[in-house]
Write a structure and sequence with these properties.
PAS_4, PAC, Beta-Lactamase, histidine phosphotransfer kinase activity, three-stranded antiparallel beta sheet, 9 helices, 2 domains, phosphorelay sensor kinase activity, 34% helix, histidine kinase
Length: 225
């Protein structure tokens, strides 16, 4: 039983009647970055739940401790790096051999990605995720695709929710319905942030080298100096 819990492909944790962690499987450790040793004995609500959700989570576990199961309860766990992971939880009473409730077992599902997808649906791509100086270029590429013209290898930056800039190499393709009418655009992208960073570093090293460096193309024309 313990081995099955530990190897399950879902975060599973358990608490005693005082809400102190006594089960913390490998998936829970992987998602939260808190090891089994870090978690065991800690108060689940006070240690791993953000303050605004503590009351609601406490109520769910209090119900389970009286024998009432709660299914599909959503709440965030806080990771060791203080990242928020959204969990869909089933909280089930845990009984001893006499039928007394001695704790709660929570079986969870990480729904962080699903919630992130739901949050962006309906947003205007250009206005929400593109920095102002690139909006006209991206809008033009999307407009062309909506008129049946595909664009390949278009480079532009996406802005993440924390404000990080990610460089994308994009193919923008018209999306057609069953009758061949264009109903939208599909963008297939590649994250080239690291590649561009390496290229910038390469050019910086060349430019600051203590030696004359030049380059020519296949026609003998200078393209690096």
């Amino acid at each position: 039983y313990s081995r099955l819990i530990d190897k399950a492909n879902a975060p599973i944790f358990g608490v005693d009647a005082d809400l102190r962690v006594n089960i913390w499987n490998k998936k829970a450790a992987e998602i939260t970055q808190f090891s089994n040793e870090d978690a065991i004995g800690q108060n689940l609500v006070e240690t791993f739940i953000s303050e605004e959700y503590r009351l609601a989570v406490s109520e769910v576990f209090a119900k389970a401790l009286t024998g009432t199961e709660t299914a599909n309860f959503e709440f965030p766990l806080i990771t060791k790096s203080e990242r928020r992971v959204e969990i869909l939880l089933n909280a089930t009473p845990r009984y001893n051999e006499l039928g007394d409730v001695i704790g709660v077992v929570g079986i969870g599902q990480d729904i962080t990605d699903r919630i992130a997808q739901e949050q962006v649906m309906g947003e205007n791509l250009v206005e929400t995720f593109i920095s102002p100086e690139y909006r006209p270029g991206v809008a033009d590429v999307l407009s062309k695709a909506l008129n049946g013209i595909q664009t390949a290898n278009f480079e532009f930056p996406l802005i993440t929710r924390p404000g990080t800039r990610i460089e994308i190499l994009l193919n923008a393709t018209p999306r057609n319905d069953l009758h061949g009418n264009i109903v939208g655009v599909v963008g297939i992208g590649q994250d080239i942030t690291d590649r561009i960073s390496q290229e910038h570093e390469y050019f910086r090293l060349i430019d600051s080298a203590n030696a004359p460096i030049f380059g020519v193309d296949t026609n003998g024309n200078i393209n690096e100096w």
